[in-house]
What does this fold into?
Amino acid sequence: MARDDMPQSDFRDAILWHLAYTLGKDPDHAQVFDWRLALSHAVRDRIVDRWMAATRATYRADAKRVYYLSMEFLIGRLLQDNIVNLQLADEAQAAVESFGLDYAGLLLDEPDAALGNGGLGRLAACFMESLATLGCPAYGYGIRYEHGLFRQSFAEGRQVEAPEDWLEQPFVWQFERPEARFTLGFGGRVATRDGRAVWEPESFVQAEAFDTPVIGWRGAWANTLRLWAGRAVDPFDLDRFNAGDFAAAVEAEALARTISRVLYPEDSTEKGKRLRLTQEYFFSAASIRDILRRFEADHADLRLLPQKVAIQLNDTHPAIAGPELVRILHDERGLPFDEAVGITRGCVNYTNHTLLPEALESWGEGLFADLLPRHLQIIDRIDEADAKAHPDRRNTARGDGKVRMGELSFILSNRVNGVSALHTGLMKTTVFADQHRIWPDRIVNQTNGVTPRRWLLGCNPRLSRLIAQTIGDGWVGDLEQLHALEPHVADAGWLDAFAAVKAANKADLCDWIAREHGVALNPQALFDVQIKRIHEYKRQHLNILEAIALWQEMRENPSADWTARVKIFGGKAAPGYFFAKDIIRLINDVAAVINADAATNEKLQILYLPNYNVTLAERLIPAADLSEQISTAGKEASGTGNMKFALNGAPTIGTLDGANVEIRELVGAENFFLFGLTAEEAEARRAVPDHAARAIAADPRLTRAVEAIRSGTFSPGEPDRYANIVENLTRADYFLVASDFADYWRAQREVDFAYANRTEWTRMAALNVARSGWFSSDRTIRGYMQDIWNAKSLLGQE
Ligand code: CR1
It folds into this structure.
């Protein structure tokens, strides 16, 4: 094949062509890495035409565009996702195997792009995929972090963080756009000229765009994920270089690049805070300019902006986009201030993802004024006008020397949404009660969802095949069709097939764990999985306490008919969150002791898998029997892992929190293991003096489990290693671990009992699948399009 024979149709040839002409490799010497890149290029070629067609269709229709601004896009690996959405899986596999290569191995060679921390970032990635699937013209805007979330390993049970380097190798899916650059100012002062405010920044940085196409199901539509990278305005100082000061010559570039270097730098220091606010302004301001540039290319009247542009703030991180838009419209384009605010409010919407006070951003006004002096004036003016219009308003965006980003987002938004029914209700009665009273129509609910392409079709091919054999493949684009499985749940043969899928997935997981981690698991055991960020409110420590109590009871009564269990944990703790890191170490210490106990280890094993990420989730979820969703009620805004487990046939043990409530309603109370205080009861319980001590005293199992930690059973030689955890559990216990323990224990024993009747269990698991269709992110995005963005699908017009 010659260079001119760029193959259009034959996939095998396309791979060989890219191997030669894109990568410069001879097939005889190509490594897995080269083949994977060649395959990725061949796949990418099939995306480009559709991507351009979608963009052209959007221009032609002068359609309203959705802009999803998010500090995080936890996209994970893209090769398989793209192959699945283009329906190329069989072709790709055949081609790869024809070269004598292992297809699964090739897919796994891709680094996992961890440009997010957890649920918030992964939601943004699912939303991008659903926006493309639904043909809604949309752009994701974020930061192209050189180092995503840290890589986690354990040393003597403790979390060790190492930089993650996904960009050390070419990222095939991105297109660099050196021509798409904006220069952004920071600091300086605000001057007045001809009665108008003029911001005179002190320093400047450039934002350079990198575009990644996001292709929807069946390749019908593609949108753009545009990530900004920091660049110096003058990257190289030749005079300094010639004077021999080589480091100083590139200092500006190093500083500019710092902005897009890492995700969530530690914000416990002033420097960290400053960088974080710099990142937020950097990507929000670059995005606003890009949005305006695109709008102004075709429209002269800025008052049309709300008809053509919907901006979604994914949490408060991009909240500064609002004041930035006001600033440009008023200071630079000359619109009256109130009109600029009105237009901004017509475009911007805000999703709240948490009620935890420590996660609601606020900035000291000193820092804010130093970095964004003009924006502070604008915020003050808006806030004062609002205060005048509503004299009974209590919560304002300013005051106490702070800029509060939640309040700011609220007052500059057309719609504000929560992410589950319970969470949205709590927003109205707690953090935004004051605002809700004044603007009763602003808060709406959009319960989260997950994309079935990645979280069922891609990650669970066996179950997908069984479903397709049973009800056809319409469910992939219309997940509610899973309901058609329900009648089959009564068919013993079909249930056997369903059970066989789970067993095979578990066997795969066991093989991988044996290979990668040298641990042999009992595949007959119930696989009980808790994977998510480590946080006190998610209560991994409740789970490990239950494991300790169970182990103690098994030792006491080894011949009882225990249901064998493997408890699997995965998750990272924020580097500065010491309590969470203690929990990680405790789980590892407990695992070491329990796994070494020959009296129990056929019935109880504990495994903490390091470096939890999207790829690991894709491995674990299809093999899970039980989904742990045990947060303190009122604290988990929604959860999305909970939906992925249910969809893959793992019933939930959980509290009435976040979207658990809706999962339970849909799958049926009899197919969900409920325990614990409700959000209301939890609030009330906190007011009871000594609630923790009382709960512990009332429960001999809990007393004994806590005592084992206190006395050093899991930290021999260092009994006070977990003094902090013990102290917290027995005294403050804000997250009510002690209060919920007894009921959690009860529910776990119900799980044991239910799992022992395997046919009944399988029925329950299958009903979870059949009734989880509502949790597709396609449903969520339709909701946003209708209730928030007023955006239309352009499918069929490309
Ligand atoms: C919430 O904790 C929710 C995701 C996505 C998280 C989780 O319950 O599913 O958002 N919030 O909505 C968050 O990360 C900063 O806040």
Remarks:
- The mean pLDDT is 96.
- The first strand starts at residue 65 and ends at 69.
